[in-house]
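Private note to self, pasted from the team thread so I don't lose it. Backbone tokens:
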């Protein structure tokens, strides 16, 4: 009896995408550790945690947005522009707490502009957010004259320098956000609506769900979290530049979400899987760094990883579609 239960549990685990993601993550760690034993040193683990922090906060917003069936390619530019505004306010004497709130408010405003383009002007989010990202990048360069904005506020620096049992607080921020958003998606009415809107807009409309309202909330949420990612980066670096968070940051967040099983077309994915995908992506990047791989080859490797994630997502979608058709035919 106990053997049957154990076998059933193991069978369910092996059918889970998260299970195989963890296997791949362990394999990546094992390969890089065999090449360089310092890969699993505590200092390098902390480096991975730090690298997870910025892309991780942004990933939470993008993963939730993708599940709702929407896209935002301006997240990196929004985070950079909003953080620069907040940094300038803090340097002008505004308390750092209000500076963080101002940064989040600017991010929300940028997200609202994305909403207007998508739902009032009818511009596809993929195209609209790509176009507006250049606007935010240009404004960030203009107001800083393409120079770094150094933040002279030691209290603000502590936001990104804190530790709990030697674990960086910035990593714990990501864990807390993933847990909170995972609970929101799984157990709340809003979370269920996010999945329904992403999976089938027509069905959502027939069920009385306002697709535009749900999409608008997720777009604004994505921009606010991107702004908070910029705040975390600025608190760690003590400065922010117009190039700190660019398109590559957005692509990294999207890659992590797709690797974690979030469907590009929406309706599928969990925050747990997205978090594992985030760890896998950053463990892979860190391993390439430790190998001393040329930066240009790293860009190629990251691009191939994104393509792989998209292909896996496409295959999963085709497989799911075929299974549904077979059930309908039966």
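Design output:
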């Amino acid at each position: 009896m106990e053997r049957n239960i154990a076998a059933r549990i193991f069978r369910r685990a092996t059918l889970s995408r998260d299970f195989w993601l963890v296997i791949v993550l362990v394999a990546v760690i094992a390969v890089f550790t065999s090449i360089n034993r310092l890969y699993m040193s505590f200092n390098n683990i902390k480096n991975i945690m730090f690298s997870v922090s910025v892309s991780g906060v942004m990933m939470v917003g993008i993963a939730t947005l993708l599940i709702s069936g929407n896209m935002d390619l301006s997240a990196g530019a929004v985070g950079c522009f909003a953080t620069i505004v907040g940094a300038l306010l803090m340097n002008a004497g505004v308390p750092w707490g209000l500076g963080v709130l101002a940064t989040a408010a600017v991010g929300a405003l940028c997200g609202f502009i994305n909403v207007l383009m998508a739902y009032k002007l009818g511009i596809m989010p993929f195209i609209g957010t790509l176009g507006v990202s250049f606007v935010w990048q240009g404004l960030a360069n203009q107001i800083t004259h393409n120079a770094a904005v150094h933040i002279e506020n030691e209290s603000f620096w502590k936001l990104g320098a804190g530790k709990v049992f030697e674990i960086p607080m910035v990593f714990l921020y990501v864990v807390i956000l993933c847990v909170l958003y995972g609970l929101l998606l799984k157990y709340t009415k809003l979370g269920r609506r996010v999945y329904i809107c992403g999976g089938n807009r027509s069905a959502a409309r027939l069920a009385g769900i306002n697709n535009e309202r749900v999409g608008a909330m997720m777009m604004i949420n994505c921009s606010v979290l991107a702004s908070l990612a910029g705040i975390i980066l600025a608190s760690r670096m003590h400065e922010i530049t117009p190039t700190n968070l660019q398109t590559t940051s957005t692509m990294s967040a999207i890659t992590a979400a797709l690797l974690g099983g979030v469907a590009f077309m929406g309706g599928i994915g969990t925050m747990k899987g997205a978090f594992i995908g985030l760890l896998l992506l950053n463990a892979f990047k860190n391993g390439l760094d430790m190998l001393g791989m040329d930066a240009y080859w790293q860009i190629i490797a990251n691009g191939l990883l994104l393509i792989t994630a998209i292909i896996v997502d496409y295959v999963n979608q085709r497989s799911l579609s075929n299974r549904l058709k077979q059930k309908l035919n039966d």
